[in-house]
Structure prediction request, 129 residues.
Amino acid sequence: MSSDDLLLASVNNAESREVGGVRLDISRAGTGRVKRLIYPAGFRWSRNMKPIVGTEYCMHAHVGFLARGQIHIEYPDGCRLEFTAPQVIAIEPGHDGWVVGDQAAVVIEFDFERETAQRCGMPEIHRHG
Ligand SMILES: [Zn+2]
Prediction:
């Protein structure tokens, strides 16, 4: 993908892939990774990603920066989060989520693969107390 819009342009030195309509550009950074994710308008995890991943909810922790767009997150206990760019995101594992409105959501995310929640001080699954 090439674009005059640098937020959407190919990321230098990154590995690119596409999963469930989401474009990922992934780079190693220390023991972790930094990713640029582009979630298209209309994306919903439970519709677009759940059939691929096979879990009931998204079990990733998401920590980073929403650079463009708007996303809505719901946990199965009814807790909801709304993020509107520019805004930092911190989303615990065990959620559904979707893009709000007609603009793609662009997220810069930091992860430690399976250890992201633990290393960011989050529970392994959304809960209270
Ligand atoms: Zn909750």
The chain has a mean pLDDT of 95. Residues 15-119 form a domain with the Jelly Rolls fold (CATH 2.60.120.10). Residues 75, 77, 79, 126, 128 surround zinc ion (CB under 6 Å). The helical segments are 45-53, 116-119.
